[in-house]
Each structure stands twice: as structure tokens, then as C-alpha cells.
Amino acid sequence: MTQLPAHTEKKLGLVIDLDTCVGCHACVVSCKGWNTENYGAALSDQNAYGKDPSGTFLNRVHSYEVQPDQGAAQTIHFPKSCLHCEDAPCVTVCPTGASYKRVEDGIVLVNESDCIGCGLCAWACPYGARELDQAEGVMKKCTLCVDRIYNENLPEEDRQPACVRTCPAGARHFGDLGDETSDVSKLVKERGGFDLMPEQGTKPVNKYLPPRPKDEQIDILAPLLEPVAAEPKGFLGWLDKTLEKL
Question: How, if at all, do strands 108-110 and 99-101 pair?
């Protein structure tokens, strides 16, 4: 079985703001596009335009209706991908050593040439963040765009995961969560960032920022929907009476 490193020099990961995510799926599309053309085997689709389509994605967005203790119900869009856990069970369960966690940055990756597609890592992951590519027979997962964030041929502003670079709402943030002075660490501290399913003991690096309490909902269209007059007058009044006689 694969061993986890005793420590990592960095803890690169994502901070996702559930308050500003609008569920547009731009992150899903950009992730699919980048990872189909670059790192590892392409993310395949099966019968993409048929009755029962299926395919491999490294990032998905789920939408839920949540009822707070007070106030109206809210729709929460919840993006989910590999959380690059410190105590990653997907790594320790791998029989070939294909799944591993890097010492230099803490990113969890899969060496696809060693992956036998047994699926043990997918069973071990409590977040359902791994998917077996049906065409290649290898396990796929978020790589934090490792082939992008270190690519010096790209402009500096593009050296971040494709999902972060693409998000139109600015809901996704990338950085070193092992550095207390980093922007992402400050954001987690200021907004009360939390772990997903902390009871699993996996110590996920990725964090989520909770939705802010919503103000009382005001329907700005309500005044426009009120009747102009209780009884029609003038030409409309004459027309209304005439039509009643028909």
C-alpha cells in the first residue's frame, strides 16, 4: 500500500465561496476542456448526445435547496472535486502506488501508467471525488491543474487552476493553505471557512466559505403587478361594459 508523506512543504488547495457561486458550471466546462487536452489521458464521454449519456468529469456542481433556521429557503450551489486531503485514504488504499501525495505541494495525483483501474481509491474516498474513465480504464481526479500552475510559458495571471481562472463570480480561490499569511488562509479565517465532512478525519485541504445570512426578500416587481384602478374608466370602462353584453 502507498505511504503518505509525514509532512508537505505546502498545502495547495481551493477555497470555494458558497455565497457567491451562482451554479453556472463554467468551472466544470473549463476543467473538462483543459484536462481533456493536457494532463494524462483525455476525459472521455460515452454516447454524449444519446439517451443515456455518461462521461468523466473532475469537477461537478450540485444544487440544493436549504431551509435556514430563520428566513426563506435558499438555493445553494455546491461545487465538488478532489479535496487533496492531508490524510488521504485514496492514497493509502492504492495497491500499486499509482495514487500518491506530493511532498513539495501536497497535491494528490494518480500515475496513470501504474493505475490498474481497480477502483479501490474511489471506494475509499468519502467525497465521491474520483471517477473511472470508461475509455482508458484509469482513475481520474482533480490535479489542481498541476501542469498549468507551474507552467512558466503561461502569463503569471494564468498560472492557476482553470476553474479558478474561469469563474465569473470570483467564487473560487487558489493558494497555499499551509501559509497563515496567504490570501486564502486569511479568507478562511475571516469568513469561517469549514471542512467538508470533518467527521471522516481526512483533513481536507480545500475549504468552503458558508453562505452569508440573506436580508428580507423584497419583490421589486410587486408594485408593477398591482391593478392600476379597481374599476376601469374612460374608453376602457366603455369597452369593458360593451364586451360584457356580448
Answer: antiparallel
